[in-house]
Description:
Blueprint: H1 2-11, H2 13-36, H3 57-66, H4 70-80, H5 84-89, H6 92-95, H7 102-135, E1 141-142, E2 148-149, H8 151-168, H9 170-182, H10 186-205, H11 234-261
Antiparallel strand pairs: 1-2
Amino acid sequence: MWRNELSTLFRRRRTQAILLTLMLVPIVITLVVRFAGGPEGGDGPGFLSQVTNNGVFAVLAGLTVTLPFFLPMAVAVVAGDTISGEAGLGTLRYLLTRPAGRGRLLASKGATVVVFCLAATAAVAVAGLVAGVILFPVGRITTLSGDSLPLVSGMLRISLAAFLIGVSLLGLAAIGVFISTITDVPVGAMAGTLAVFILIGVLDALPQTAAIHPWLLTNHWLSYSDLLRTHIQWGGVVRNIGLQGVYVLVFGAAAWARFTSKDILA
């Protein structure tokens, strides 16, 4: 069942269009830096000013630009469509005629969204790497601490950072799957997931809500930068992974409770 869900998701034109759009972001950024020059004095998005010296930083620049909106929007679309999309097409009742049961179907849908989160992040990273290597020189990687690492070690750090960004999207994905079990209208589930994300972002930016900042899923999203220091600072990374796990458990359980008890009419 899970392999079939994966195949169905990545064969959809919409999913392919989303991934292509995500890949275009770091490519366009790299082209602009190549022909118009990078920002001076460290202005602009993180890591962008370093692309001209080392093309590998196009990966981090692309991820930094897509993380605040493009990646969450892509996850909101896919996660919001998991259950409500089947209901909207009238295929949900057919899927439930299989002996697998509702719990297994929900788990397969959820696991598919997890793969998409990682695949979307990987698409941005790979596109940025290819564009950066083609357009700029590549060499030792300067850390945020000011030291330099061999290319292989630096690429390993960057790969871990990209993976962490993919993991950072899992909390939002769990919210999207839960909302998808509430409504039979996929556009409503997608919009609802994106609205929740925007609300969390607003709360995370307000100093008046500082007491709840540590519990907001976006609060530790930038912890991936701690992997790019000479001595990795694991505190923020661990807190980020743990917080995403809490969101997955809470909203995954809520989605299971809702989906296994609701009347399926479509």
